[in-house]
Amino acid sequence: MPKFQDNAGREWRVRITPDVVRRARAELDLDLANVGASGAFDRLSADPILLIDAVWLAIADDAATLGVTQEQFAASMSGDALEYCGIALADAVAESVPVKYRTAIRDLWQLTTDLDLDRLYLLRLKILSFNPHATR
Concatenated DSSP letters for the chain? Predict the structure, then answer.
């Protein structure tokens, strides 16, 4: 399970579940189940507050157990911690899809943050071919 450490030294494990996907859609208008077509990674990489809020949804249960509020978590996120939480979120999204798409999902995050637009376009095409809602 992907993990990262915030600036307060707390370690967080990031897991994308169907409930996290539903909440991200409802609360953040962010589709973590279809990151290639929805532009979710573009939005997350461009908006650190959205990234923090999305990661919060994936760690909220663990945070409640530790007595950490969303505000405390957000206050501990900047610099390297912010970068590593983005990587952990992308890895968690990758782990939530079939194996054959995992590398593409991870590469999509890397390219989105690196702005290699030619490779990004090709990866999006590959990911767009995956429809998680189609019956096989």
Answer: --EEE-TTS-EEE----HHHHHHHHHHH---TT-HHHH-HHHHHHH-HHHHHHHHHHHHHHHHHHHT--HHHHHHT--THHHHHHHHHHHHHHHHTS-HHHHHHHHHHHHHHHHT-HHHHHHHHHHHHT--TTS--
Q: How far apart are CA 64 and CA 53, in angstroms?
A: 15
Residue among 38, 46, 51, 65 at smallest CA distance from 124: 38
Average pLDDT per block of 10 residues along the chain, 136 residues long: 96 97 97 86 92 98 97 96 94 91 86 66 71 56
Rg (CA), the chain: 14
Q: Contact 102/95 with Cβ under 8 angstroms?
A: yes
**In which residue are the tokens 């993990």 written?**
3
CA distance 73 to 10: 9
